[in-house]
Design brief:
single chain; mainly alpha; rod-shaped
Amino acid sequence: MPELVTLSRNLRRAREESGLSQQALADKAGIHRSYLVSLEKGVGNPSLEKMVSLSTCLGIDVIDLLTPQLSIDMPVPEQKINNDMVLRSVVEVLRKAGAIE
């Protein structure tokens, strides 16, 4: 699930930015460290209650854990461009505009 990948990346990023170790965050949130590790790996599926607890401990909104963010570790997918199709589209627009026959 892409949402779990987003959650895992944002959770780890927020934890690291707050300067907390996994153990420290787990202790603050009242969860086991291994559970936090599973969330940061994108394999855990937390309840809303756990996400609220984690976001509160990190000083962020829950929505920040679920919102995809562009960064170096989350590259924008490359889009392959079909040059022939682009050229045909440009020619068609120019024909409709009367610029070419």
